[in-house]
Structure formats: C-alpha cells, structure tokens
Amino acid sequence: MAKFSSVSLSLLTALSLVRVGRSTCPVMQCWYTLEKGRGGGLATAANQVQSLLFIQTEEEKHDPESVKPAPDIDHVFFITDPSGSLCHRALDPPKGSIQKPHCELNHLQPQPSSLGWVAPLTDTDQSPLFLQAQWFAATIRGVDQEMSVTSVIRAPVESQHNVILSVTTQTVYVAARLGDPALLDCSYWVDPSSPLHGSGFSVEWRYQFRGSGHLVLGYDGKNDRLSDIREQGATLDFQSLHRDRNASLILSQTRVKQSGTYICSVHVPHLVAQVALELEIIEPPVVSIHPSQLPLIVPGQTLTFICDASGFIPLSLVFSWELTDSQGNVRLLGQGSVSSHKEGNDATYSQTSRLQLDSSQLEQGRGGKLSCVAEHPGGTRRASVSLNVIGFSSPSIEDSMALVGVALVLYGFIKFVSWTFTGSDDNEADEKKKN
C-alpha cells in the first residue's frame, strides 16, 4: 500500500476536490525527482515521476481522508505554506487553460556553506536538531512569466510537509533600455515559528550567460558586510532588505554585457533557496539615409541609396523601403540588399540596406518621398528623403500660385522701368521748347 505522502491520485479527482472545498490555493502537477543513490548524478527522465502538490495554509487545509488513490499519479504531497507564496494566482491558472506552471520537486540535504558571506551563519560545527527531518525543494515557475518561487520544505514525518523558507521573484523577465536603471525583484520569507527565524541571513546575486558567469555581489546580513568582489553599479536597498526582506538587485546603469540570467540566492543557517531571472537589454536603432539630400533627378536615372541602422541590441532587425507619391499613396519596395551585422565598441550592432531606385518609378515634375523603415524589438524607426524629378506635368496649386507671384513682380518691375524712362523723355522735351 502506498505511503501517505505518496498516495496515488488522478489529477481530475484532485482538482474537483479542491474546487468543491473552495480552496484558494492550487493543486498542481509537479515533476518529482526520486531520491538518488549514493552514486549521485543529475536528474533524468528515468528517476522523475509525476506528483501532485496540495497547497494549503494554516487556515485552510485539505482533508487527506477524502483523497482516493488512482494509478496515473505516483505521489501526492500536502504542503502547508503559511506565507501564501505558493497560492499566488500565477501558480493557479483558470480551469481549461493551456498554459500550466512548471514545477519540480527535489530532495534537499541541509549543509553549511564555505562562502565568505555565508559561513558566519554556521560558525559552529553542531547541526541543530531541527534539521533532522526530510527536506525538499520545490521550484515553481508561474504562467506568463509573472512569478517564480522556490520553497524549502521540511517533513518531520511523512504526513507533514511545511514550508520553512521561500524565495520569490515577480520579475521573471525584465527588459531595460541601454543606460537606464533596472530593478530585479527578489524577496524571501522564513517561517517565524522555526528556530531559523532571526538567526541571520545572507544574499547572493550571480550572473550567468552562455555557460560562464560571475558574482555580482554577496551580502552577509548577520554582520552587515558586503563581499569584496562586487559588480560596479550593482547594489541592494539594505534598509528594505532588513525591514521587508526585499533582496532586489538594483543596477544603476545597464550595459549590453549585462543581458543574461541572474540568480538570487538567500541563505539561512544550513539552507538555501534561489530563483532565476532574465534581463534583456533592448536598444532601438538610429536610422539614417545616404545621400540625405539630392539635386533634381533626370528621368531614367538610377539612384543608389544606403540606409544605415546603428546602435541597436539585440540582433533582430528587419528593413523595408517605402515610396510615397505626391498623393500620399505608399508603394513597398522590399528590404533591399542587407549587409551582415557589425559589432561596435559598445557591443551594440549596426547593419545597412542598399536600394537601387529607377527614377522612372517617380512622377515627373512631382517626385515623392523615399523612406527606410527598421523594425526592431525596441521599436520601429524610419528615415526619409525627398525626391524631385525634372519633367513636364500639369502644374499644382502651389506651382500656379508661384507663377502668379512671379508675374506680379515682373509686371511691377516693367511698370517702374517704363515710368522712369517716360519721365526722362518728357523733361528733355520741355527743355528743348524753352530754348
């Protein structure tokens, strides 16, 4: 017969029990990694099985007697979370939703740490009696990248599973403009009834990208001391950390090289929980067209234009060319001939598009406007140049008004000259008569 903490149950039955009981905490499917042998090794599909987590609080609990075993779910755990972190709406999507939280449950072995900013938490060699129990770590990522939480769970007996430590982030994904400040959310909770509460804590932030990484900063909360190695421009709100357990990382001015995965780890004596966040630096391109000014174009002439997009990150960029006539009609000309990316000194990228345009496509005497459009995750940018073609066409209203103005000026000039010469001839005739 199955043990109480591993009672078999179908998912449909479990969900129906929760809805009938009007529970506000979820029942979620979770990949449970069976305890490995002494050989250790990474978790594989062979030692991962489906389980159900019945999340409950002190005020609202599920009735274990109402659970009936079924063969399709291998293990069931009733987990009490006084903090309510596991009852977040992002971990309990509406019934019928395609997206589900991703959950993994693993065995955990409490142990001290030798890290300089963590070691003071376990300055004695004795292991507290409180640690003599089964320990698990549940890592759950909610839907729509809204939340991620890791909870350390203590099981003094198989029928009792209590959350002792939780680390949570509300910013699983953060996008920031280049040079702007960024806030990576992280907070933690320790069970007030456990002996670990008030015994000190440490916070560690690490950066990882493509297999490599480094320490961003480490903080010994017990002795109020920062690690000697820390990234420039990275800090914590220490007052909020001690008062509200807010361990969020503050980056004062983001750089391209800071895109990647950030891991927030919170240590208490012998235990640690961590969550991962993604930071993406996004900067739209600066777009320009060369040549930016053109003289009058001769019909039949072939023109070459270069559109330059520079200073953007990430790489994704789509060019397009547009030709707008004098009536506002837009014609698409394609993306042109696009170059490969070039990386600048600031790690941003540049790229160009080359377009050859036959002036016969333009209205003679009217021309038009040529635009280069660059679509980027950071926003769409465009640049335009005016085109004027020599030719014959019916004059526009503006042309007619200009001609009238020129005619008036010429008429006035002719009248002035005529008056001047006429007056001079009259004076000469009067002088001859007097003589």
Report what the structure shows.
- With 435 residues, this protein is mainly beta.
- It folds into 2 domains: 4-282, Immunoglobulin-like; 286-387, Sandwich (Immunoglobulin-like).
- The protein has helices spanning 11-20, 238-244, 397-434, and strands at residues 27-33, 48-56, 75-80, 102-107, 134-141, 148-157, 160-169, 173-177, 182-184, 187-190, 202-209, 212-220, 225-226, 234-236, 249-251, 260-268, 271-282, 286-290, 302-312, 318-324, 330-334, 337-338, 342-343, 349-358, 368-375, 381-387.
- Strands 1-2-3-7-6-5-4 form a 7-stranded mixed β-barrel. A 6-stranded mixed beta sheet has the order 8-17-16-11-12-13, with no helix packed on it. Strands 18, 19, 22, 23 and 24 form a 5-stranded antiparallel beta sheet that branches.
- The longest helix is centred in the last third of the chain and has 38 residues, at 397-434.
- The model is unreliable at 1-23 and 37-43 (pLDDT under 50).
Highlighted features:
single chain; 435 residues; mainly beta; Immunoglobulin-like; 2 domains; seven-stranded mixed beta barrel; six-stranded mixed β-sheet; 3 helices; disordered N terminus
Output the CATH class name of the largest domain: Mainly Beta
Estimated radius of gyration? 37 Å
Strand content is 35-45%
- In CATH, the architecture of the largest domain is Sandwich
Structural class: mainly beta
**Spatial strand arrangement across the major sheet:** 1-2-3-7-6-5-4
* CATH homology-level superfamily of the largest domain: Immunoglobulins
- Rounded to the nearest angstrom, the distance between the terminal CA atoms is 149 Å
**What are the low-pLDDT stretches, counting only 5+ consecutive residues below 50?**
1-23, 37-43
> Given the structure, what is the number of helices?
3
Largest sheet: 7 strands, mixed, barrel
* Count of the separate structural domains: 2
**Chain-averaged pLDDT:** 83
CATH topology of the largest domain: Immunoglobulin-like
Counting DSSP E segments of at least 2 residues, the number of strands comes to: 26
Helix content: 10-25%
Inertia-based shape: elongated
